[in-house]
Design a protein that fits this description.
With 168 residues, the chain is an alpha+beta fold. It has a single domain (3-149), classed as Sporulation-specific cell division protein SsgB (Transcriptional Co-activator pc4, Chain A, Roll), CATH 2.30.31. It is built from 5 helices and 8 strands. Strands 1, 2, 3, 4, 5, 6, 7 and 8 form an 8-stranded antiparallel β-sheet that branches. The relative contact order is 0.16.
């Protein structure tokens, strides 16, 4: 694909995402520990014709500034939580990224911007799809709290090192 075509497709995608984000009314909220959380429903893709809704919770805590936590409530006794780099999710809103256990890419379905999240573990694999608007809005809010490149300034490296050496 030519660079001009890629740029045009990226512009179309970001314009649609911006419009959806403006119409998105819910906002992320802070929990009692200063973590930003966003509840949403993702679709567990079972086949091209079939998917199941799965309640999910996005969480970002400034104490762990490089990571995002995504908890899926899949109907079991305990929810399933995945932790991966916030930067991976930020990049995945705009272009395919990730290798191995977590891969993220943007797409459009039925005229709406979506984000695909492919997760792989020894227990199995899952393909999940979410509306891009709430994810992008939530990410923007996390970036206002801890901008990219300032993560190390909010970490207490001495405390982290002590906890690591003490085996906590």
């Amino acid at each position: 694909m030519a660079a001009a075509d890629r740029n045009e497709r990226h512009d179309d995608y970001t314009t649609g995402l911006r419009a959806e984000r403006l119409s998105y009314q819910e906002r992320a909220h802070l929990d009692g520990h200063g973590c930003m959380q966003q509840q949403l429903t993702v679709e567990l893709v079972l086949s091209p014709e079939r998917s199941l809704p799965v309640p999910a919770l996005l969480a970002y805590c400034p104490e762990d500034p490089y990571a995002v936590h995504v908890t899926f409530h899949v109907g079991q006794d305990s929810p399933v939580t995945w932790v991966f780099a916030r930067e991976l999710l930020v990049e995945g809103v705009f272009r395919a990224c990730g290798t191995g256990d977590v891969r993220i890419w943007p797409t459009r379905a039925d005229g709406r911007s979506r984000i695909c999240l492919a997760l792989s573990s020894p227990a199995g694999e899952a393909l999940l799809e979410a509306s891009a608007a709430p994810v992008a809005t939530w990410l923007e809010q996390t970036l206002r709290v801890v901008p990219t490149g300032t993560e190390s300034s909010v970490m207490d490296l001495d405390a982290e090192l002590t906890a690591l050496l003490d085996g906590e």
